[in-house]
Design a protein that fits this description.
By secondary structure, the protein is an alpha/beta fold. It has 21 helices and 12 strands. The strands form 3 sheets. A 5-stranded mixed β-sheet has the order 1-12-11-9-10, sandwiched between helices. Strands 5-4-6-7-8 form a 5-stranded parallel β-sheet, with helices on both faces. It binds 5-phosphoarabinonic acid.
Length: about 500
């Protein structure tokens, strides 16, 4: 029996690869049946918030019910397009109605465009940063094989290799990426609502040249621009060069835009079932229209996070037992702090892959300052079952697992249960979002629930969760330092201020 656990022939086909191959033939009109809906219900478990290891719970049910009334009021403001939601005079609530507005025809059009596009390229690069990037990468990584680009094209579901760029300015990252892309037929989708984001624009310059080099006169066929309908540098460039374009709606901000064409086109190129993704948004939209606070997971989630902040917590660890779902935590790391972090408000979000992080900041969560809440993103059903092989010598003492036919899946589940118990004992209230399986429907549900939660908690804190004025400060400083025309005065101010600093280097 020794070594059986490592024999992939005996393990059977990898289900993730099977799913990828199946997704290549997905259809635009997906509607979940009741069995599918029941099997894929995202649940929020707040047992370890409203109970304590001993003594008083961190948040009582009565307290939550009371704040719940306000959460319901905030939701009504969203439904009626009121509240603190303007950006440049536009109410940024398009994401709330989007799930009901997207038609099967639109989904079909995106799938057809993506199929045609991906057939002619070996590698697809999605360029963007923040809301023009994270949701696409998070969804892609949550659903696909750990080593996607190393698989054969057939095992990838007949889709190209997938890359993400434009989200940093690291020269080595670009140099290394070019090594991989050189000689391949590369297609790109550049995504920027403003059309002026430096990181994305520089990446686009580099990648555009690569496409022009291999495709020559036909380069425009392999460049997609996703941007504002009429405004911005990228819109002008796209029109001049005759690139195909997708539109980012005026009334949807970056971090709320993954269900718009921002996410849909790239995900469809990667073979993700976007109709199923949309169905997940719709299901959660329906579930969260209720004014019954205790039946509305988005409102309960918002109320718990809001009260946690009011009661002195400042860090939310979002931990997952899945190397794939942890990318959804990275999406949440953007959605919440960029929406809530204004005028002294907001929880700092720390995405943490468990059990890896338990051997690092796990010590501090257990026993450091009591400033944490913890949210678990628990993957219930992994794609594959991984047995733990028996060992006749049993020097590590782990045969109790293999003898009892305990798989790695069993142990990995405890990576949530163990910390949930221990951390509550240590004074860290925690909640769990149960994620039934790795599919696009569940990701859609999670995204809508979190978008509504961020909007409601932002409203409760009295801020506008659809703007990010603080992000402009670093951009201004970088432009001034880089010598961008128009920033001369600011550069002088920076120089004067720098001259006043007492230098201290050790
Ligand atoms: O959520 C947001 O609004 C931001 O994270 C933006 O998406 C990000 O700054 C990228 O902006 P743009 O799409 O204009 O390039």
């Amino acid at each position: 029996m020794q070594g059986d656990g490592l024999d992939t022939a005996q393990l059977g086909p990898n289900k993730t690869i099977q799913n990828q191959r199946k997704r290549a033939t997905n259809s635009p009109g997906f509607r979940p049946d009741q069995n599918f809906i029941d099997d894929n219900r995202i649940e929020l478990d707040i047992t370890n918030i409203v109970n304590a290891a001993d003594g008083e719970s961190f948040i009582g049910e009565d307290e939550l019910s009371a704040i719940g009334l306000r959460a319901v009021e905030m939701k009504k403001l969203i439904e009626t397009k009121k509240g603190n939601c303007l950006d440049n005079g536009i109410p940024m609530l398009g994401w709330y109605t989007l799930p009901d507005e997207i038609t099967d025809e639109h989904v079909a059009e995106i799938i057809a465009a993506a199929r045609q596009f991906r057939n002619d390229v070996d590698a697809f690069v999605s360029l963007g940063i923040g809301g023009s990037y994270l949701g696409i990468e998070a969804t892609f990584k949550a659903l696909t094989h750990t080593h996607f680009n190393q698989l054969s094209r057939a095992d990838r579901g007949d889709v190209p290799e997938i890359y993400f760029m434009g989200q940093n300015l690291d020269p080595d990252f670009y140099r290394d990426s070019l090594d991989l892309l050189q000689g391949k037929r590369v297609g790109i989708n550049v995504i920027s609502k403003s059309g002026t984001t430096t990181e994305t624009a520089i990446a686009f310059r580099i990648l555009r040249q690569l496409v022009e080099k291999w495709a020559g006169q036909k380069a425009a066929d392999y460049i997609i621009a996703t941007t504002d309908k009429t405004r911005g540098a990228l819109r002008s460039l796209a029109e001049k060069k005759r690139y195909r374009t997708f539109v980012i709606p005026d009334n949807i901000g970056g971090r709320y835009s993954v269900l718009s064409d921002v996410g849909l086109f790239g995900l469809a190129v990667a073979g993700v079932d976007i109709a199923e993704f949309l169905a997940g948004f719709r299901t959660m939209k329906q579930r969260t229209t209720t004014d019954d606070f205790w039946k509305n997971p988005a409102l309960v989630h918002a109320a718990v996070r809001y009260l946690s902040f009011i009661k002195g917590k400042s860090i939310e660890v979002i931990a997952s037992n899945s190397t794939h779902l942890i990318h959804l935590a990275r999406w949440m790391e953007q959605l919440f702090p960029e929406s809530e972090g204004q005028r002294g408000n907001g929880l700092w979000v720390s995405p943490s892959l468990y059990s890896e992080k338990l051997h690092a900041n796990g010590q501090m969560v257990q026993d450091g300052p009591r400033i944490f809440i913890e949210t678990f993103l628990r993957l219930r059903r992994h794609d594959n079952e991984m047995p733990i092989p028996p060992d006749p010598e049993n020097l590590d003492g782990l045969n109790f697992l293999s003898d009892n036919r305990r798989s790695l899946n069993f142990v990995n589940d405890l990576v949530i249960d163990g910390p949930a118990y221990a951390h509550l004992e240590g004074g860290v209230p925690n909640m769990t979002i149960d994620f039934p399986a790795r599919n696009a429907y569940n990701i859609g549900q999670l995204y809508f629930m979190m978008e509504l939660s961020a909007a409601v908690s932002g409203y409760m804190a009295g801020i506008n969760p659809f703007i990010q004025p603080g992000v402009e400060a670093y951009k201004k400083a970088m432009f001034a330092l880089a010598g961008k025309p128009g920033f001369e005065e600011y550069r002088r101010t920076m120089e004067k201020s720098a001259a006043r600093l007492r230098k201290l280097k050790i």
